[in-house]
Amino acid sequence: EYESRFGFGHSSVSHLSTFAERAGVDRLLTFHHDPMHTDAELDAIRDHLLERWGVEPERCGIATEGALVEVGASA
């Protein structure tokens, strides 16, 4: 999808996985999704990201509206 949305301010899965790896990210939540995507489509994007990044599933999630996320050293 990245090519059709170039300039929207979004990143590709390959860019995101590379950035997460280089930055030493412990846990990643994706956000700002296309509202027309189904849950299955978002899960497929997450699975692709996990495959590219090469980490355990609990390290990558999909942010949802209304979710509260604690960040910081003790989170």
Could you walk me through the main structural features you see in this protein, from its secondary elements to its overall organization?
Helix content is 35%, strand content 8%. With 75 residues, it is mainly alpha-helical. A two-stranded parallel ribbon has the order 1-2. The radius of gyration is 13 Å and the shape is globular. The chain starts with 12 loop residues before the first helix and ends in a 13-residue tail after the last strand.
Keywords:
single chain; 75 residues; mainly alpha; two-stranded parallel sheet; 8% strand
Shape: globular
Query: What Rg is obtained from the alpha carbons, in whole angstroms?
Result: 13 Å
Query: Strands of the largest sheet, in order across it?
Result: 1-2
> Total number of β-strand segments?
2
Given the helix and strand composition, which structural class is it? mainly alpha
Low-confidence segments, given as residue ranges, are none
How would you summarize what this structure contains?
This protein has 75 residues and is mainly alpha-helical.
Strand and helix layout:
Elements: H1 13-23, E1 28-30, H2 39-53, E2 60-62
Parallel strand pairs: 1-2
